[in-house]
Known about the structure:
The structure is a homodimer. In chain A, about 30% of the residues lie in helices and about 15% in strands. By secondary structure, chain A is an alpha/beta fold. The first copy, chain A, has 2 domains: about 25-210, Glutaconate Coenzyme A-transferase (3-Layer(aba) Sandwich); about 225-535, Glutaconate Coenzyme A-transferase (3-Layer(aba) Sandwich). In chain A, strands 1, 2, 3, 4, 5, 6, 7, 8, 9 and 10 form a 10-stranded mixed beta sheet that branches. In chain A, β15 (about 355) and β16 form a beta hairpin. The longest helix of chain A has 18 residues, at about 230-245. Chain A is globular. The N and C termini of chain A lie far apart (about 70 Å). The interface between A and B is large, with 100 and 99 residues.
Amino acid sequence: xxxxxxxxxxxxxxxxxxxxxxxxxxxxxxxxxxxxxxxxxxxxxxxxxxxxxxxxxxxxxxxxxxxxxxxxxxxxxxxxxxxxxxxxxxxxxxxxxxxxxxxxxxxxxxxxxxxxxxxxxxxxxxxxxxxxxxxxxxxxxxxxxxxxxxxxxxxxxxxxxxxxxxxxxxxxxxxxxxxxxxxxxxxxxxxxxxxxxxxxxxxxxxxxxxxxxxxxxxxxxxxxxxxxxxxxxxxxxxxxxxxxxxxxxxxxxxxxxxxxxxxxxxxxxxxxxxxxxxxxxxxxxxxxxxxxxxxxxxxxxxxxxxxxxxxxxxxxxxxxxxxxxxxxxxxxxxxxxxxxxxxxxxxxxxxxxxxxxxxxxxxxxxxxxxxxxxxxxxxxxxxxxxxxxxxxxxxxxxxxxxxxxxxxxxxxxxxxxxxxxxxxxxxxxxxxxxxxxxxxxxxxxxxxxxxxxxxxxxxxxxxxxxxxxxxxxxxxxxxxxxxxxxxxxxxxxxxxxxxxxxxxxxxxxxxxxxxxxxxxxxxxxxxxxxxxxxxxxxxxxxxxxxxxxxxx
Amino acid sequence: xxxxxxxxxxxxxxxxxxxxxxxxxxxxxxxxxxxxxxxxxxxxxxxxxxxxxxxxxxxxxxxxxxxxxxxxxxxxxxxxxxxxxxxxxxxxxxxxxxxxxxxxxxxxxxxxxxxxxxxxxxxxxxxxxxxxxxxxxxxxxxxxxxxxxxxxxxxxxxxxxxxxxxxxxxxxxxxxxxxxxxxxxxxxxxxxxxxxxxxxxxxxxxxxxxxxxxxxxxxxxxxxxxxxxxxxxxxxxxxxxxxxxxxxxxxxxxxxxxxxxxxxxxxxxxxxxxxxxxxxxxxxxxxxxxxxxxxxxxxxxxxxxxxxxxxxxxxxxxxxxxxxxxxxxxxxxxxxxxxxxxxxxxxxxxxxxxxxxxxxxxxxxxxxxxxxxxxxxxxxxxxxxxxxxxxxxxxxxxxxxxxxxxxxxxxxxxxxxxxxxxxxxxxxxxxxxxxxxxxxxxxxxxxxxxxxxxxxxxxxxxxxxxxxxxxxxxxxxxxxxxxxxxxxxxxxxxxxxxxxxxxxxxxxxxxxxxxxxxxxxxxxxxxxxxxxxxxxxxxxxxxxxxxxxxxx
Lengths: 552, 552
């Protein structure tokens, strides 16, 4: 065999770079003018390529997405897209135009309905809905990108990149492409003589484009405290007293939503009253939620490592380097891959919301007509069975789950699902059968797209109480524990009243009153901030909320 | 609150850097002479610090370890060490001298017995034995290093680092320290004007030391084919035909050892005869095992992403960039964190050996008098419950495990334990009770240090056959399936013969003959390489084995 037989990737890369060489200039030979981006993509992207289009919860390589949607489908077609998040109209437009034909992704917020339509029209093949770290893992095994289209804050003349607070997925994507003969193209908001710091070294980057507009960033983790209801305050009180305090939960992750924002805002008030400062919620794997500001200021929080940043939190983060991970330049370094590893292996608890829960405790956000994806929830909301280090919370949860004293003792991650029994438009959160079953059929999957499996869930919290599934022995008990907190939904009404009472007597189900929580105390007065303006005030004016959250 | 109240980490770092400033020079102000290293460490390391001392399966920051062992214990003491691998005498000497007092680690090969002695003497507190990715995760949550002592191949004048093939743990360690006000000190083999590529940017690094000797690298994954026995050939045949072919295992990880080396060496012979090329073992998360060379040359392997490199494989890897992950400079980039994520989430199968297995299928390498640790095995050898993407192997394993058709279908990772029924010195691999129980007591752990839990194991393979635990219904069947392949060990002799025969009739236990494998065919002639010299030949002279593996 000749030497070149093992260098097809290198040869392909060299050919692509050669085709694009006339488009690139600057001292590094990497800079491409923004108006030449479509031509660049047509030169380096080949039919059938695996293309990673950076887009995640927050940061979007939106200019590159727009340009990719403008390439000539006769030359560039049948792409296999790899994406953390399908968020922009351009992402789905790629399928409408035949530029792309299949996708592996993790999350699709606003585009969930369009994705479902594209599936129905046969215009897209969704191979799988991943959790982020799973998708990153595949970038190094069987989904290595031929081309990576990424976004950074700034580049210097050599092509070193500054990704700053929104570093997010960039290092994982670039490493997978750059070290397997992939082409790395970056859109930057500015080209600077010197960078505040280097987040990605220049020799991992092939082309730099100064985009006409700064990349889009979605403030996905901002929740206006004014919209938190008193039912959510009640549920948050139950979580703090009935779970965080009982297990001594110090290291944790919160999902997105008003339910968990309520918990964050109750730490400096209700949590403080219960004497829990320093005993719970000290170390976080969490985006910089504005709702956490009052708890940080009250001294509840020792550290926060973040998947990504949050718009408006930059100055506050930079002023709190003891809490957040920041560089020598003072700004945050987020990193989704490491934060997901931390969330999986170093956290004792994950708590999040969902759209549907069945009587086995399986939950999904994939509902009829919407393919929403799961993001980090399956990774954070699964028992970390490779974990071996002990903590109070992990050991206690494992003990509760151990049915037989002869079994090898093993710790357990606390995985809490927190839902009101009815969501908006009176849709029940509890169902006998998940919509995910139908979706699996329409998507051609063997297994329904479940976000969190019932056997990974340890507690379900509703306004009706806490069901501790760890203490259930056998499937029947589990089912009745779930029905027992499902309230007036059909699932709840079908409960076996006697068995539910027996479970309550054993402490498997605990109502607010069983926890010594009076419903009349669950008022919005307990929230450490009642408005976005309160959050700004709590931050000493450092938090600068996006305009859509300002009404002053 | 004043601004500085939130900047204690920054202030501490500035004070440490100030104390060491007179020791550092060069154009970057970062270069410290080797003979000033002890003085540097005494200036920047403070009592009680969390110190990450880089050392993993392969690369060791051995010069920094030696220097740390020479600091004055009156000034530097009570350190909390964080280490992937405890491998060198200097590592344990730190505890003998009182410089360090507690440790969180993952693996200790040769130092396992000394660790046990230190525990018995009350000179060390072992907080936990982690899996690598778990330890890295904690670096971002509750075990963030104050000081990181790392090793690189070369630095330039600015302090940019080239870690080359042995990048390994370095990016994870440096990121955790550099972005949380930690001090990063690197030993390098040389200081160059220009680097082949940049693996770690200069502004993440505080001090650079040109060490008097190149850092130590252990060729841990090299197995001499001459030492593979015919029993191992037989077991490898059973694995290839009875597991890899049956499930269509394409993406996988192999543990260390002669058992798995035998599988690698049988792919181009026995695997080829069975028509399996392209159908199994195409994509790997694996160190560059020399034993894989014949399979690569035969076209079995599409890609290999590696945790670390392997001594002597550098030129071979550089000549096979279609298979390995290499940079623009041509040399490999390994990355333990990403490869562990890939092994957990993107692989369908993990197979490895162990020292003891109990009748529940729990296994451990922690035996009496030895605290060996587990390395990556708990991460790779656990069902990845956050995984959602489907593959033939994963779906089939999940189907076999599903006991009740009403349960939500879920895929399963294949986790195979491969052992001869007796190890060296006739120690039985199967035991009624793991030594780990006693070890837990002596170490003050709640839970015994289990490497892989029985409920994560799907198959146990011995020379007696394959026990498919997925097909077992209930604990009794599981126990008898395990006893059924435990041969003439006490555990095997205590089997219920009738039940074992029934399990065999159902295909839960399969003997070699049930798989159509004649024991007489299991000869060393099947090995694609019978010696290290054969491996060199297969590589076209590119593989350059360490001298200890050369007898010519």
